[in-house]
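Take a look at the protein record below with the fold in mind.
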Amino acid sequence: MGCSPDDLIEFLKTRRSIRRFRKEKVPMEIIEKILDVARYAPSAHNSQPWRFIVIDDRGILDELSRIHGGGKPLMNAPQAIVVACDERASPDSYLLDCANATIYIQLVAHALGLGTVWIQTMRNIDDIRKILGMPKYITPASILAIGYPDEKPEPRPRIPLEKIICINKYCLD
């Protein structure tokens, strides 16, 4: 594979949410490379319910940036990727399936030196559908602002393991 398990673990630990981007757009060939890998994310029964919408139109990015306070990174992102789910393809697990594709996109972008930030969509599904012309059976699972990072955030604190691990039965509260 070319890297040690420790290198891979370190790679995973160094991914950060990037909210400030340089102005230049990521070439479409690189976006396609990222989305090609995202197709390999796990999905229930290999249903692959994801659909990807690449957005580089400034007006659409600005409109999406106003769906809620967490959408602000889209105001300075050169592009975004919306991970949308076809509910018909995976009625019981489409959101989890598309969450898997979302993290694949974030990890491949990180591997290629790009930055992303996940913008949740669940409280604004109908607004996003309207902005992007989606039919009712397509649900936007996530929006990822993507681009060349213009910041290098420090790691944020993590909850200690002993506060989140149980063995055999739930033990926390």
User: Anything to note?
Assistant: The chain has a mean pLDDT of 96. The first strand starts at residue 50 and ends at 55. The chain has one domain: 18-163.
